[in-house]
């Protein structure tokens, strides 16, 4: 019901604006100063420049128009224009994307970016395009780490019984079940309050998100588990995009690439500065983590969610990218 209401409101306010004024709304779940906010602004500025002002844009930040799942649905029904989202809920719409959400798959940022900017990334953008969505470009959220309010997590045993919010992603849920936590899927806009009220003890997100959302206000411990790389993607609504000329489509694509470059630069910056920022704000940052036991449990419990349907070919291809 809530989703339907948000969708209806978005349809009235955004649909009209997009048609009459060529004003493109870029939705995302974080603050305007976050890596997504910076990316959204780069999208808008590039699109405005390339089109000589024929297109303008504005951000709908901080989950104003719903969680990532709601916004993806909005793209499909045409009530949203452009969305920057993690792949968290995207597998519910395009199951092939789960390949990218597998824990301990990507070695580092270079590996992930190379895969997404290459042949595999293009294939998966095309897959998105077969599901009533337009995948414009891969962008980035970052390697995810566990935070919580209860204790310093150093080993899987420390996760035992911890109520941990995950994204609405069955690969991630299976991984955390395997590692010993009690995963609770939840949309991002509900997360801060859920932690504040003790509905969940913790969550997992990259440094970018932990700092943008000021999770230190409700979380004490952050463990640099880096258990999964979290890709993000710039998506457009077919209702908007399919009506564009080829030239206009190329503007949208270039704007999405500029958005990804801006967000990745901000990810890079925060990977350096974010740890200090978390410490300054009172978090205990646990860095001495042996990832091997986490990886073993996570892989055992979660890879089959993907491989039962699609086999191991894509995983092997991703691992082979140097
Ligand atoms: O995309 O839901 C999440 O935890 C995401 O990482 C966040 O919304 C940014």
Automatic annotation (TrEMBL):
GO terms for biological process: transmembrane transport. GO terms for cellular component: outer membrane-bounded periplasmic space. Keywords: Periplasm, Receptor, Signal, Transport. It comes from the Bacteria. Its main location: periplasm. InterPro entries: DctP_fam, TRAP_DctP, TRAP_DctP_sf. It is found in: Periplasm. Pfam families: DctP. Belongs to the bacterial solute-binding protein 7 family. NCBIfam families: dctP, TRAP_S1. This is Tripartite ATP-independent transporter DctP family solute receptor.
């Amino acid at each position: 019901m809530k989703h339907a209401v948000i969708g209806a409101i978005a349809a009235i306010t955004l649909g009209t604006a997009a048609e009459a004024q060529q004003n493109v709304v870029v939705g995302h779940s974080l603050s305007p100063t976050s890596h997504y906010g910076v990316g959204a602004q780069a999208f808008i500025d590039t699109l405005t420049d390339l089109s000589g002002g024929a297109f303008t844009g504005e951000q709908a930040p901080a989950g104003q128009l719903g969680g990532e799942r709601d916004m993806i649905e909005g793209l499909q029904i045409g009530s949203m224009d452009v969305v920057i989202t993690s792949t968290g809920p995207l597998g519910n719409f395009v199951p092939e994307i789960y390949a990218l959400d597998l824990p301990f798959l990507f070695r580092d940022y270079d590996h992930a970016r190379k895969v997404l900017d290459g042949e595999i990334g293009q294939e998966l953008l095309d897959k998105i395009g077969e599901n009533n969505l337009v995948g414009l470009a891969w962008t980035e959220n970052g390697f995810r780490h566990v935070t919580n309010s209860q204790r310093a997590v150093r080993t899987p045993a420390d996760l035992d019984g911890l109520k941990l919010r995950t994204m609405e992603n069955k690969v991630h849920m299976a991984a955390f079940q395997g590692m010993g936590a009690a995963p609770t899927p939840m949309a991002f806009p509900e997360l801060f309050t859920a932690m504040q009220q003790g509905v969940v003890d913790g969550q997992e997100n990259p440094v970018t998100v932990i700092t943008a959302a000021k999770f230190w206000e409700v979380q004490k411990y952050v463990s640099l588990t880096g258990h999964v790389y979290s890709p993000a993607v710039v998506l457009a609504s077919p209702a908007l995009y399919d009506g564009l000329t080829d030239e206009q489509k190329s503007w949208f694509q270039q704007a999405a690439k500029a958005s990804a470059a801006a967000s990745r630069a901000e990810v890079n910056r925060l990977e350096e500065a974010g740890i200090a920022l978390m410490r300054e704000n009172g978090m205990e940052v646990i860095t001495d983590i042996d990832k091997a036991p986490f990886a073993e449990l996570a892989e055992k419990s979660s890879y089959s969610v993907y491989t039962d349907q699609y086999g191991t070919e894509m995983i092997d291809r991703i691992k082979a990218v140097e």
